[in-house]
Amino acid sequence: MTIFSRAHLIWAIRHHVHQWGWKGIGASFLIVATVISLVAVVIPAQRELLTMKADAKFLASGRAIPAPVLRAMGPDTRQLSSFYAVFPTADRTTAAMEAMYAAAAFNHVELERGEYRLLPGPTDRLTRYEIILPAKGAYLPIRKFIAQSLKENPTLTLDSISFRRSAINEVLIDADLRFTLYMGKE
């Protein structure tokens, strides 16, 4: 007769149930289940959390990721790095503004004196340059100016627009345009 025979196992269960009672057996089962879940779930999750915190700290530092490290990283990290690489740095703000003013001149839209504010971005790696431009021109050229500006500056967004016409038969309209230019930090 072996130690792990069926009869021996049934006798051991009956003995422990009689000795500990059902509450003791239930408590033992919960202790074993807790240890198994700790080893199988919690410890690996803690390791992954520590790795993710280290990766986030490195990415927030803004340092360039060396090519061998980038290849070793997963595709998600490479995608995120290439995403942030699209954003121009703050020194390209002048070029973006010149492109907007050139688009306005090309489309015969008169831009009046605007307001410009540098604001913190939605993440540590981005900054926002808020641009409020009063414009005057016909409706279609204003629309073409907006479309050209957005096409030439992929990180430019049109946040709001409002039109006013002084008289119903007036060809030229006044528009208030609110753009945001997102830029990467250096």
Description:
- The chain is an alpha+beta fold and 186 residues long.
- It contains five helices and five strands, in the order H-H-H-H-E-E-E-H-E-E.
- Strands 1, 2, 3, 4 and 5 form a five-stranded antiparallel sheet that branches.
- Helix 4 runs antiparallel to helix 5.
- The N and C termini lie far apart (76 Å).
- The mean pLDDT is 82.
Number of strands: 5
Relative strand content: 15-25%
Please outline the major beta sheet. Answer: 5 strands, antiparallel
- The share of residues in helices is 40-55%
Query: What coarse outline follows from CA principal-axis ratios?
Result: elongated
Encode the helix/strand succession as letters. Answer: HHHHEEEHEE
Instruction: Report, as a whole number of angstroms, the end-to-end distance.
Output: 76 Å
- Rg (C-alpha, Å): 32 Å
Q: Regions with pLDDT < 50 over 5+ consecutive residues?
A: none
Q: Brief overview, please?
A:
With 186 residues, the protein is α+β, with helices and mostly antiparallel strands. It is built from five helices and five strands, in the order H-H-H-H-E-E-E-H-E-E. The protein has helices at residues 6-60, 67-72, 75-85, 93-106, 139-152, and strands at residues 110-111, 115-120, 126-137, 156-164, 173-184.
Write the layout of secondary structure elements.
Blueprint: H1 6-60, H2 67-72, H3 75-85, H4 93-106, E1 110-111, E2 115-120, E3 126-137, H5 139-152, E4 156-164, E5 173-184
Antiparallel strand pairs: 1-3, 2-3, 3-5, 4-5
Helix pairs in contact: 4-5
Comma- or semicolon-separated keywords:
186 residues, alpha+beta, five-stranded antiparallel β-sheet, 5 helices, 22% strand
